[in-house]
Write a structure and sequence with these properties.
4 helices, rod-shaped, mainly alpha, disordered N terminus, 218 residues
Length: 218
């Protein structure tokens, strides 16, 4: 209510109260102050909303960038695992042809290296899955599943190779050749599985890169 007896009106509005104002002028001043205060409040709310939107956008971009790095690491790990698996196959092929203890030992070393590379690929694809955003999670899961399958196949190939080495040390040439052939076949199977994991990791990387690009341009 507007005082009519000259009493002081207490307010915090941003527009200075005119001194010696008549009740009519005081009323106009009050309306103007309220309008000014309302505009300032709306502007502050708009600024806060814009800041929230920008913060959310930045957070999304950081998440996408993190996912991209994780998928790049997974791609590299699965590529190396596939290369190691291929080398194990080559060494196993040579062992079948040579039927020598030296060739078998080289095959066993290559199988162990392939096994370690496969385990690293499993770790990196799992990290990529955890970092994946909603749009890329399905592809990341497929790559992780493929890496797990490759790791199991590679472990089996290592076991077959170690079995072939033991057989060669204790049995005749024919038994050793059969065991070495089984190790070679297992290594070939592991290589196929490793290649599949590497291909799926590449697909995940491409999808993640596309998702990052979309996040940046939003």
């Amino acid at each position: 209510m507007i005082p009519s007896n000259g009493a002081t009106l207490k307010t915090e509005f941003p527009v200075s109260r005119p001194k010696g104002a008549t009740p009519m002028k005081l009323k106009k001043w009050l309306v103007l102050s309220m309008l000014t205060f309302g505009i300032t409040t709306v502007q502050a709310a708009d600024d806060a909303a814009l800041q929230a939107i920008e913060a959310s956008k930045t957070s999304a971009q950081k998440a996408e960038a993190s996912a991209q790095k994780a998928t790049e690491d997974a791609k590299e790990a699965t590529r190396k695992a596939a290369e190691a698996a291929k080398l194990a196959v080559d060494k196993a092929e040579q062992a079948v042809s040579d039927a020598s203890a030296k060739a078998l030992e080289a095959t066993k070393r290559a199988a162990k290296d392939a096994n370690e590379a496969a385990k690293l690929a499993v770790k990196k694809t799992a990290e990529a899955t955890r970092a994946a955003t909603g749009s890329t999670r399905e592809a990341a899961l497929k790559a992780e599943d493929a890496a797990n399958a490759a790791a199991l196949a590679t472990k089996e190939a290592l076991q077959k190779t170690e079995e072939a080495a033991r057989t060669a040390a204790k049995s005749g040439n024919e038994s050793a050749r059969e065991a070495t052939t089984a190790a070679r076949d297992a290594a070939a199977k592991a290589w196929e599985a490793a290649k599949d994991a590497a291909e799926k990791a590449v697909t995940t990387t491409k999808e993640t890169a596309r998702s990052v690009k979309e996040a940046v341009t939003k």
